[in-house]
Amino acid sequence: KSPANVTNDLILRRLFEMIVENLDEFVYYPIPKNMEYMRCQLTRDNQGLDKYFLPTYYLHAERNDGKKYLILTARCKLRKYGTASYVLATDITNTLKDEEPFIGKFRGNNMQDSEFVVYDNGVNPKHIKNNQEQLRRRRRQMAATIYETKLLGLKGSRKMTVLIPNMTENDQRIEVQPQNEKEGLIERWKHSEMNNILELHSIITESNSNNLKFNDRQELKESTKNFQIVWTKDSTQGKTSS
Question: Range of 162's domain?
């Protein structure tokens, strides 16, 4: 194996140890910069009536030997204030009620469902009333996505922007804990205030099709569900950085 592959295997071994020993710690742990990739699989529960109105998703991490570990579940909640909302948990039973332990939330940021923010399980700033403990536990924004809206019937590659907090030289996440909506990832992006924020984009192919190659995996049929997220500087070169 090349030195890079050996390094990646060592990092993966440690991460899978974290998955087994402390899954809640793992899901918040920033992936080291010198890691090449971790293969994951996202599936949707197609059982029961809820699959249409309140779908549940499962995210598995896959080892090189093919063994899979369930690391996150996401269940759609009834809409509040007109925006989509998902509860994220490391245990499927904890996605049923907001009162039960959960790891975070994936929530719509606008009525058009073209903007979403991933939060941890901290306290909503709106619910903090000069309480020092609550101030310390103010929720973090872990990531955000912005989809480009399209006219009905318009075909082409899915266009999206992904925002994530940057990391320090010691592989520590630079926390984003906004005190109000104006300090969040999406608002900062809209005002070009990108200090300590990484901006990624989906690959746009020359043919603008939805048929993309996924390295050693079988090339999938054309679908709007196929997409690849890369660093901004590589978005037109087809380099899969993430």
Answer: 109-235
Number of domains the chain contains = 1
Q: Is residue 224 part of a domain?
A: yes
Q: What is the pLDDT along the chain (242 residues), one digit of tens a residue?
A: 667 777 888 899 999 999 999 999 999 988 777 888 888 999 998 777 666 678 889 999 999 899 999 999 998 886 666 678 889 999 866 555 554 568 899 988 887 788 999 999 998 888 887 777 777 789 999 999 998 866 554 555 568 899 999 988 887 889 999 988 789 999 999 999 999 999 999 876 655 555 666 666 655 566 666 777 887 654 443 333 33
Q: Which residues contact 7 (CB under 8 A, 6 or more apart)?
A: 34, 35
* Alpha-carbon gap, residue 241 to 230, rounded angstroms: 5
Taking the model in full, what pTM does it have? 0.80
Please report, in angstroms and rounded to a whole number, the separation of the first and last CA atoms in the chain.
22
CATH number of domain containing 173: 3.20.90.10
Distance CA 146, CA 113 (A): 9
